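Quick question: what would this complex look like in 3D?
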Amino acid sequence: MTAELRTEGIGKAFGGVQALDDCALTAAAGSITGLIGPNGSGKTTLFNIVTGYERPDAGEVYLAGQRITGASAQRVFGLGLARTFQLTRIFPRLTLLENMLVAAGGHAAGRRRAHELLEFTGIDGYAGALAGTLSYGQRKLLELATVLAAEPAVVLLDEPAGGVNPTLIQHLADRIRDLNAQGTTFLIVEHNMEFVMGLCHQVTVLDHGTVVAAGPPASIARDPRVLDAYLGTVPDTGLEDVGEPGDR
Amino acid sequence: MTAPVTATVSRGRRTVLAAGVPAVLLAAAALFPLVFSSPLATTYGFDALIFVAAASAWNIFSGYSGYLSLGHAVFFGSGVYAVAIGARDWHLTGDAVFGLLPLAAAVAAVIAVPLGLVALRVRRHTFVVVTIAFFFIFQLMAFNFSFTGGTSGIDAPILNWSAATYNDPFYYLALVIAAAAVALSWLIRRSRFGLHLRAIRDDEDRARGLGVHAMRVKLAALVISALITGLAGGLWYYFIAAAHPQSAFDPLFDLSLALMGFFGGLGTVFGPALGALILEPAQQWLTVQFTNDYLSEILLGVLFLLVILFLPRGVLPTLGEWADRWRARSRGRPEAPADGAAVQPDRQPEGTAS
């Protein structure tokens, strides 16, 4: 299963702060697309809008050509678009297997898939343990596994390598490549440039809620606008990333 | 948190316990009126069973979903008034009044739908406050509408049963409802529906993002919970033989359910039932011992504080932990922390987690 994810002219303001402004982005079907940008550039807000956690003030979201703007989070997931969160979110008082079954479905095929994915991510030894007992990195793996349970066509990862040790980052990147080889489209927000440049086919740069550059990693790394956005001729606004739903 | 090793140690024995203990308890409950046939004993038994049903029902919603309701008296009172008004307006007498019990369940369930659609839009503390507000709205309505009989309430039709065995049919009906409530709670706990409820308890937004129809699931749990609570209310009405606003819509009822749930173990199948079986008779007994009403309530408050201090997760989960630990020690197993048995490739410091 594979699909293209596209946004057109997305705008979103929180009070007086324009988090996103005319934001247009495409993650081509079957690609791994990186989404980078300084803190507060609107990456997480865009994720929230695409996955149905927030409604945009303007613009449209298309999944495989179908308009999904404003669809609820559970519907978006049902349509084959799944995400992870910047602050890893699992169900701490459910076992790993139960975590998987929330998304995988209770039928025999769902159970099989759940076990396969725990094995795939390398945490199957803990299937019966409460997810709250996992270490941070293992939680990241579990979150990735749950997201994959319903075999989504497009997966959005919000800082999958954040706070994760180098060995595990390698493990994660390998898993993402495996899945991508089977056709899964990835859109990845990440600050770890090595990870992004090594993994992604395309990179989109967001600054102040607008796409300022898009292209293959090599050209992005040399783009003066990107260096600008990161190294800052623009003074720091002091704005942090907007939180994820449920934080309020 | 229970370590993975201990969590998986005793599954087999637990299954035996999980099946055996309730069967023994059920048999004991069925024999209770034969052994203790005095009306006082069966009254205690009846009240305890009503609360087993209501606390288990409360737990199906609040325990599993994490949405703490302090307004379940709305459903209890609605059940009370549904049968009271029905029996009065349709001039039912004698045993025929028991035919109205399904009405008590249905009315409470129907009322739960609009209430849920409103209250379930907010979470945590706000949700608790909204449920309390609903409770007072319903109590005020019972006080002030004419069809509820206002402050004087509605008397139940008289049952011409012999005084010596008057309580017994009530007791067994309550036992059936209580057993059904616990069984239903057990079924839900094991079901996909129950899994979705517990996922919502842990992280509702995450659950939605994994395809859980959160509103539908929460509402269904509330309706099921209200249905059982209303049924218990209907039966209780015939037993008390009167519906009054302050007893049908009783704020202490709300608090009792929460207390029983926390005492026995929030979100466990049998915890709230255990809490009801201990706390309801204890409260009745204390009220009889110390005719001063407040003293018994103060003592219950002290008990609650002790539980919060020493068994914060409730009796059943704590006992389970002790048993696991004891068993692990007697087998010479180390109490391995989660990290200890880490599989490859990740060995992150625990400190970064939650």
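Answer marked as accepted. Chain A touches chain B through 53 residues (CB under 8 Å).
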